[in-house]
Amino acid sequence: MKKITLILPLILVACAPVSETQKFEQRLSELEIKVAKLKEKQEEINLKLEEINKRLDYITEDLGKLKLARYSAPKEEKPILEEKPSFEDEVKIEYQQALELYNMKRLNEAKDAFVQFIKKYPATKYTDNAYFWLGKTYYELGNIERAKQIFNVLIKKCQRGALPDCNKLPDTYFMLVKIAVDEGNITEANNYLAVLEKKFPNSQAMSKAKELLYKTP
Q: Which domain holds residue 24?
């Protein structure tokens, strides 16, 4: 703080009259009183400034402590939100779960899982697979008529374009050839083989069907 220093010149009045000297002394006395009051006010201001500076120091210190605590405190880890699987992923997962039951030969559970899958997802790229494995499940459970029905449903749906993917169609015809051979109906087996030769001549299913029929006495 800059201190204001008032310098009052001393005026020497040598030859002034007594009355003028008295006036001068009176004015000088008044000025001294004002200067004293100004000094007193200046001291009050200085005290207030000191108090304000102390408060600022306390505030600055507190802010520093808060910052230090903030940076030194362990950061809370944000919870990782699990992404909801897409529709395609959901379909694939449920199909694979049903197929796993079949591979484990838990056939009744697999049958129910494939039925539920077809009801829930009637037209996906996995639906034809579900129909095929459902038919095979019935076949292995010994329900041959139901297996044939399922295989024929799959063929009809593929023929009218009700399914987006029919990659299991060759295997479906092979299973119908196999069932016909099991039943001793060679004519029906040859009919299904003819369809395979016409529609899927280079498929593995056609080769297997031929081999099966050639082995048949």
A: 19-68
